[in-house]
């Protein structure tokens, strides 16, 4: 990825922060986007280590902010070679019959519409360039059902898979690859939030999977890196489970 320009959303924390660091370590110029100021911390860490990055504050569910984010990447670095559409939220857990419309809409806005809006503006740039690689973050909950209150999250993460495959089919002829990762339980701020507020026993759940543990963010970021990079040059429309065997 030496010399490439890579946009990462949700870059302020967890998987996005690890991925932004990894891309920068391997020579990419990174556009670290997040709706919170935490993205500035990611950029500070990258530049302190000698990498190139800048922070864009953007909410992926707001089209104008997404448009500005993509424009800032192109204006600053002159191109957009790869994008990791990773920002996501875990809405309050509730069984379907008690799920509120507000919670459904909030989850949809970030977890599905946010990915669509990012792709919409990234693909326009990449089609003009004649090349590009997009990686979206789905989840194991986008491959199988998510009983116990996570139906809305699961529905939108399945939606990310549909968007990914459709975009791959539409844009292969333009030299653009589109893939997704489907992480299992990963030790991030989101997981801590679910443990503290939704009584998730992450370690207990992970113990029942083949590898028997949760992932570290960098292990998931490595999969995103591979899919974004030319090392996966003949892979498109693929959803890579990075889940310690949870769905095997
Ligand atoms: P995290 O909570 O540590 O980081 C998510 C980042 O996204 C935060 O910095 C947050 O400010 C940002 N963000 C949230 N909403 C945003 C918005 N509307 N616009 C821009 N930025 C926004 O979470 P984590 O775990 O790193 O999650 C990254 C992705 O991985 C998410 O899509 C999540 O659904 C997915 N995932 C996480 C798993 C886990 O166990 N941690 C498992 C499967 C998928």
UniProtKB/TrEMBL annotation:
InterPro entries, sorted: NAD(P)-bd_dom_sf (IPR036291), SDR_fam (IPR002347)
Record keywords: Oxidoreductase
SUPFAM superfamilies per UniProt: NAD(P)-binding Rossmann-fold domains
Alphabetized PANTHER family for the sequence: DEHYDROGENASES, SHORT CHAIN, ESTRADIOL 17-BETA-DEHYDROGENASE 8-RELATED
A GO MF term: oxidoreductase activity
Name of this protein: SDR family oxidoreductase
UniProt KW Transmembrane keyword: no
Organism: Streptomyces phyllanthi
Gene3D superfamilies xrefs: NAD(P)-binding Rossmann-like Domain
Source taxon at top rank: Bacteria
CDD domains: SDR_c
Similarity remark: Belongs to the short-chain dehydrogenases/reductases (SDR) family.
Pfam families according to UniProt: adh_short_C2
